Amino acid sequence: MDRKPPLCTLCRSRPSIYHRRYSGERLCARCFAKTLRERVERTIARFKMFEYDSRIAVAVSGGKDSLNLLHLLHEIEEKFPKAELIAISIDEGIEGYRDEALRFASEACRRLGVEHHITSFKELYGFTLDEIAERNIGEVTTCTYCGVLRRRALNTAAREVGADRLATAHNLDDMAQTALLNLLRGDLRRMRLMHPAGFSLEGFVRRVKPYCEIPERESTLLAYIRGIGFQTKPCPYAEEAMRSDIRRFLNYMEARRPGTKFIVYRTALRIIESLGAVEETVGGVCKLCGEPTTGEICRVCQLLGELEKR
Fold first, then answer.
1. Taking residues 42-67, what's their average pLDDT?
2. What residue ranges define each of the domains in the chain, with the CATH number in brackets?
Protein backbone atom coordinates (compact mmCIF):
# COMPACT_ATOMS: atom_id res chain seq x y z
CA MET A 1 0.00 0.00 0.00
CA ASP A 2 1.41 3.39 -1.05
CA ARG A 3 1.89 5.82 1.76
CA LYS A 4 0.98 9.44 0.96
CA PRO A 5 3.44 12.16 2.00
CA PRO A 6 2.30 14.30 4.95
CA LEU A 7 0.58 17.58 4.20
CA CYS A 8 2.45 20.85 4.15
CA THR A 9 2.85 22.34 7.64
CA LEU A 10 1.91 25.83 6.42
CA CYS A 11 -0.93 25.51 3.90
CA ARG A 12 -2.32 22.17 5.17
CA SER A 13 -3.67 21.45 1.70
CA ARG A 14 -0.80 20.24 -0.50
CA PRO A 15 1.54 17.28 0.01
CA SER A 16 4.96 18.18 1.37
CA ILE A 17 8.10 17.69 -0.73
CA TYR A 18 10.72 18.86 1.78
CA HIS A 19 11.42 18.21 5.45
CA ARG A 20 13.21 21.15 7.06
CA ARG A 21 14.90 19.25 9.85
CA TYR A 22 16.22 22.25 11.79
CA SER A 23 12.68 23.65 12.22
CA GLY A 24 10.59 20.48 11.91
CA GLU A 25 8.48 21.91 9.07
CA ARG A 26 7.30 19.84 6.12
CA LEU A 27 6.69 22.06 3.11
CA CYS A 28 5.07 21.83 -0.30
CA ALA A 29 6.94 23.35 -3.24
CA ARG A 30 4.91 26.58 -3.21
CA CYS A 31 5.25 27.22 0.52
CA PHE A 32 8.91 26.25 0.48
CA ALA A 33 9.70 28.86 -2.19
CA LYS A 34 7.56 31.42 -0.37
CA THR A 35 9.43 30.94 2.92
CA LEU A 36 12.80 31.52 1.23
CA ARG A 37 11.64 34.73 -0.42
CA GLU A 38 10.19 35.94 2.89
CA ARG A 39 13.46 35.12 4.66
CA VAL A 40 15.42 37.18 2.13
CA GLU A 41 12.96 40.08 2.53
CA ARG A 42 13.27 39.90 6.34
CA THR A 43 17.06 39.85 6.10
CA ILE A 44 17.05 42.94 3.87
CA ALA A 45 14.70 44.76 6.26
CA ARG A 46 16.48 43.67 9.43
CA PHE A 47 19.87 44.91 8.29
CA LYS A 48 18.52 47.93 6.35
CA MET A 49 20.48 46.83 3.29
CA PHE A 50 18.87 49.05 0.65
CA GLU A 51 17.31 52.48 0.22
CA TYR A 52 14.08 52.95 -1.73
CA ASP A 53 16.11 54.33 -4.65
CA SER A 54 19.24 52.16 -4.43
CA ARG A 55 21.15 51.26 -7.58
CA ILE A 56 22.03 47.65 -6.80
CA ALA A 57 24.80 45.72 -8.50
CA VAL A 58 24.16 41.99 -8.09
CA ALA A 59 27.21 39.73 -8.35
CA VAL A 60 26.05 36.94 -10.68
CA SER A 61 28.45 34.04 -11.18
CA GLY A 62 26.06 31.64 -12.93
CA GLY A 63 25.76 29.32 -9.93
CA LYS A 64 22.50 28.49 -8.16
CA ASP A 65 22.89 31.00 -5.32
CA SER A 66 23.60 34.07 -7.42
CA LEU A 67 20.89 33.22 -9.96
CA ASN A 68 18.33 32.60 -7.22
CA LEU A 69 19.27 35.92 -5.60
CA LEU A 70 18.99 37.72 -8.93
CA HIS A 71 15.47 36.35 -9.45
CA LEU A 72 14.39 37.15 -5.88
CA LEU A 73 15.75 40.71 -5.98
CA HIS A 74 14.12 41.22 -9.36
CA GLU A 75 10.75 40.25 -7.82
CA ILE A 76 11.29 42.36 -4.71
CA GLU A 77 12.52 45.35 -6.72
CA GLU A 78 9.20 45.50 -8.58
CA LYS A 79 7.70 47.00 -5.40
CA PHE A 80 10.27 49.83 -5.53
CA PRO A 81 10.09 51.52 -8.95
CA LYS A 82 12.87 54.01 -8.12
CA ALA A 83 15.36 51.23 -7.35
CA GLU A 84 17.57 49.78 -10.10
CA LEU A 85 19.09 46.34 -10.56
CA ILE A 86 22.26 45.67 -12.57
CA ALA A 87 23.99 42.29 -12.83
CA ILE A 88 27.80 42.13 -12.84
CA SER A 89 29.86 39.02 -13.56
CA ILE A 90 33.58 38.38 -13.27
CA ASP A 91 35.36 36.19 -15.81
CA GLU A 92 38.37 34.86 -13.93
CA GLY A 93 39.59 32.97 -16.97
CA ILE A 94 39.11 29.32 -16.00
CA GLU A 95 38.92 27.30 -19.19
CA GLY A 96 35.94 24.96 -19.44
CA TYR A 97 34.39 26.32 -16.25
CA ARG A 98 33.68 30.04 -16.18
CA ASP A 99 32.52 30.25 -19.81
CA GLU A 100 29.66 27.84 -19.03
CA ALA A 101 28.69 29.80 -15.90
CA LEU A 102 28.66 33.10 -17.78
CA ARG A 103 26.30 31.62 -20.33
CA PHE A 104 23.79 30.78 -17.59
CA ALA A 105 24.20 34.28 -16.13
CA SER A 106 23.69 36.01 -19.49
CA GLU A 107 20.63 33.91 -20.32
CA ALA A 108 19.01 34.69 -16.96
CA CYS A 109 19.66 38.42 -17.32
CA ARG A 110 18.23 38.41 -20.83
CA ARG A 111 15.03 36.65 -19.69
CA LEU A 112 14.56 39.04 -16.77
CA GLY A 113 15.49 42.14 -18.76
CA VAL A 114 18.32 43.00 -16.36
CA GLU A 115 21.36 44.95 -17.57
CA HIS A 116 24.44 42.72 -17.49
CA HIS A 117 28.13 43.73 -17.33
CA ILE A 118 31.08 41.31 -17.53
CA THR A 119 34.60 42.19 -16.36
CA SER A 120 37.59 39.88 -16.74
CA PHE A 121 40.79 39.24 -14.77
CA LYS A 122 42.68 39.55 -18.07
CA GLU A 123 41.38 43.09 -18.62
CA LEU A 124 42.04 44.23 -15.07
CA TYR A 125 45.23 42.40 -14.14
CA GLY A 126 46.80 41.08 -17.34
CA PHE A 127 46.44 37.45 -16.21
CA THR A 128 43.71 34.83 -16.33
CA LEU A 129 43.37 32.62 -13.26
CA ASP A 130 44.66 29.68 -15.30
CA GLU A 131 47.81 31.70 -16.10
CA ILE A 132 48.16 32.62 -12.44
CA ALA A 133 47.89 28.94 -11.47
CA GLU A 134 50.66 28.04 -13.94
CA ARG A 135 52.99 30.69 -12.52
CA ASN A 136 52.06 30.13 -8.89
CA ILE A 137 54.76 28.08 -7.17
CA GLY A 138 54.66 29.74 -3.75
CA GLU A 139 52.74 29.03 -0.56
CA VAL A 140 49.79 31.20 -1.57
CA THR A 141 47.03 29.03 -3.07
CA THR A 142 45.31 29.76 -6.36
CA CYS A 143 42.09 30.18 -4.36
CA THR A 144 43.72 32.99 -2.36
CA TYR A 145 44.71 34.79 -5.56
CA CYS A 146 41.18 34.35 -6.89
CA GLY A 147 39.53 35.58 -3.70
CA VAL A 148 41.63 38.75 -3.45
CA LEU A 149 41.43 39.60 -7.16
CA ARG A 150 37.75 38.78 -7.42
CA ARG A 151 36.84 41.06 -4.50
CA ARG A 152 38.68 43.93 -6.16
CA ALA A 153 37.11 43.15 -9.54
CA LEU A 154 33.58 43.16 -8.10
CA ASN A 155 34.15 46.48 -6.36
CA THR A 156 35.62 47.98 -9.54
CA ALA A 157 32.70 46.72 -11.65
CA ALA A 158 30.13 48.01 -9.14
CA ARG A 159 31.76 51.44 -9.12
CA GLU A 160 31.84 51.55 -12.91
CA VAL A 161 28.08 50.96 -13.18
CA GLY A 162 27.41 53.64 -10.54
CA ALA A 163 26.00 51.28 -7.93
CA ASP A 164 25.58 52.29 -4.28
CA ARG A 165 25.14 48.68 -3.16
CA LEU A 166 26.87 45.46 -4.18
CA ALA A 167 24.72 42.42 -3.37
CA THR A 168 26.51 39.09 -3.19
CA ALA A 169 24.89 35.65 -2.89
CA HIS A 170 26.77 34.35 0.14
CA ASN A 171 24.49 31.69 1.59
CA LEU A 172 24.26 30.37 5.16
CA ASP A 173 26.90 27.71 4.49
CA ASP A 174 29.32 30.35 3.19
CA MET A 175 28.76 32.54 6.24
CA ALA A 176 29.25 29.70 8.73
CA GLN A 177 32.39 28.54 6.89
CA THR A 178 33.83 32.06 6.87
CA ALA A 179 33.13 32.47 10.57
CA LEU A 180 35.03 29.27 11.45
CA LEU A 181 37.87 30.13 9.07
CA ASN A 182 38.33 33.52 10.70
CA LEU A 183 38.26 32.00 14.18
CA LEU A 184 40.83 29.35 13.25
CA ARG A 185 43.07 32.02 11.75
CA GLY A 186 42.51 34.41 14.65
CA ASP A 187 41.45 37.10 12.17
CA LEU A 188 38.95 39.28 14.04
CA ARG A 189 39.19 42.10 11.49
CA ARG A 190 37.88 39.83 8.76
CA MET A 191 35.27 38.54 11.17
CA ARG A 192 33.88 42.08 11.40
CA LEU A 193 33.97 42.55 7.63
CA MET A 194 31.73 39.51 7.06
CA HIS A 195 28.71 41.31 8.57
CA PRO A 196 25.65 40.87 6.26
CA ALA A 197 24.84 44.59 6.28
CA GLY A 198 28.25 45.61 4.98
CA PHE A 199 29.93 48.92 5.79
CA SER A 200 30.31 52.32 4.19
CA LEU A 201 34.06 52.47 3.65
CA GLU A 202 35.71 55.12 1.50
CA GLY A 203 36.50 53.79 -1.97
CA PHE A 204 34.28 50.73 -1.62
CA VAL A 205 30.73 50.10 -2.75
CA ARG A 206 28.81 48.92 0.30
CA ARG A 207 28.61 45.12 0.05
CA VAL A 208 25.48 43.42 1.40
CA LYS A 209 24.48 39.76 1.70
CA PRO A 210 20.68 39.36 1.40
CA TYR A 211 21.01 35.59 0.89
CA CYS A 212 23.02 34.95 4.07
CA GLU A 213 20.34 32.94 5.90
CA ILE A 214 19.52 30.53 3.07
CA PRO A 215 21.12 27.08 3.50
CA GLU A 216 22.90 25.83 0.39
CA ARG A 217 20.76 22.70 0.29
CA GLU A 218 17.58 24.77 0.19
CA SER A 219 19.06 27.06 -2.44
CA THR A 220 19.63 24.05 -4.70
CA LEU A 221 16.04 22.87 -4.23
CA LEU A 222 14.68 26.35 -4.94
CA ALA A 223 16.52 26.49 -8.28
CA TYR A 224 15.08 23.11 -9.30
CA ILE A 225 11.55 24.04 -8.19
CA ARG A 226 11.69 27.27 -10.19
CA GLY A 227 13.35 25.68 -13.20
CA ILE A 228 16.40 27.93 -13.03
CA GLY A 229 19.32 26.51 -15.00
CA PHE A 230 22.68 26.89 -13.27
CA GLN A 231 26.22 25.61 -13.41
CA THR A 232 26.83 22.38 -11.51
CA LYS A 233 30.46 21.80 -12.44
CA PRO A 234 32.78 22.52 -9.45
CA CYS A 235 35.67 24.95 -9.75
CA PRO A 236 38.86 22.98 -10.58
CA TYR A 237 40.80 24.95 -7.96
CA ALA A 238 38.31 24.63 -5.10
CA GLU A 239 39.98 21.71 -3.31
CA GLU A 240 43.12 23.75 -2.71
CA ALA A 241 41.34 25.84 -0.12
CA MET A 242 41.15 25.29 3.65
CA ARG A 243 37.47 26.18 3.23
CA SER A 244 36.86 22.72 1.74
CA ASP A 245 37.86 21.09 5.04
CA ILE A 246 35.58 23.44 6.97
CA ARG A 247 32.72 22.72 4.55
CA ARG A 248 33.00 18.96 5.09
CA PHE A 249 33.11 19.41 8.86
CA LEU A 250 30.03 21.66 8.94
CA ASN A 251 28.06 19.34 6.65
CA TYR A 252 28.88 16.43 8.94
CA MET A 253 27.79 18.38 12.02
CA GLU A 254 24.60 19.61 10.33
CA ALA A 255 23.66 16.03 9.43
CA ARG A 256 24.22 14.95 13.03
CA ARG A 257 22.79 18.07 14.68
CA PRO A 258 20.38 20.04 12.44
CA GLY A 259 20.69 23.78 12.96
CA THR A 260 24.46 23.77 13.53
CA LYS A 261 25.12 26.17 10.65
CA PHE A 262 22.58 28.68 11.97
CA ILE A 263 24.17 28.47 15.42
CA VAL A 264 27.66 29.16 14.04
CA TYR A 265 26.39 32.05 11.91
CA ARG A 266 24.41 33.68 14.74
CA THR A 267 27.28 33.25 17.18
CA ALA A 268 29.54 35.02 14.67
CA LEU A 269 27.07 37.93 14.51
CA ARG A 270 27.16 38.25 18.31
CA ILE A 271 30.97 38.29 18.21
CA ILE A 272 30.93 40.97 15.50
CA GLU A 273 28.52 43.13 17.51
CA SER A 274 30.72 42.80 20.59
CA LEU A 275 33.77 43.94 18.61
CA GLY A 276 32.19 47.26 17.68
CA ALA A 277 31.95 49.14 14.38
CA VAL A 278 34.45 48.85 11.57
CA GLU A 279 36.54 51.97 10.98
CA GLU A 280 34.99 54.42 8.53
CA THR A 281 38.23 54.67 6.53
CA VAL A 282 40.87 52.14 5.52
CA GLY A 283 43.77 54.50 6.17
CA GLY A 284 45.13 55.44 2.78
CA VAL A 285 45.66 54.49 -0.83
CA CYS A 286 48.05 52.06 -2.49
CA LYS A 287 51.08 53.87 -3.88
CA LEU A 288 51.08 51.57 -6.92
CA CYS A 289 47.43 51.43 -8.04
CA GLY A 290 45.74 54.17 -6.02
CA GLU A 291 43.10 51.86 -4.54
CA PRO A 292 42.16 52.09 -0.83
CA THR A 293 44.37 50.03 1.50
CA THR A 294 45.53 49.84 5.11
CA GLY A 295 49.23 49.76 4.14
CA GLU A 296 51.50 51.31 1.54
CA ILE A 297 50.84 48.57 -1.02
CA CYS A 298 47.49 46.79 -1.33
CA ARG A 299 47.18 43.01 -1.29
CA VAL A 300 46.27 42.92 -4.99
CA CYS A 301 49.49 44.66 -6.00
CA GLN A 302 51.51 42.47 -3.64
CA LEU A 303 50.17 39.29 -5.24
CA LEU A 304 50.53 40.58 -8.80
CA GLY A 305 54.06 41.73 -7.99
CA GLU A 306 55.01 38.24 -6.85
CA LEU A 307 53.67 36.80 -10.12
CA GLU A 308 55.70 39.25 -12.20
CA LYS A 309 58.90 37.97 -10.59
CA ARG A 310 58.25 34.37 -11.69
1. 97
2. 37-276 (3.40.50.620), 279-310 (no CATH)
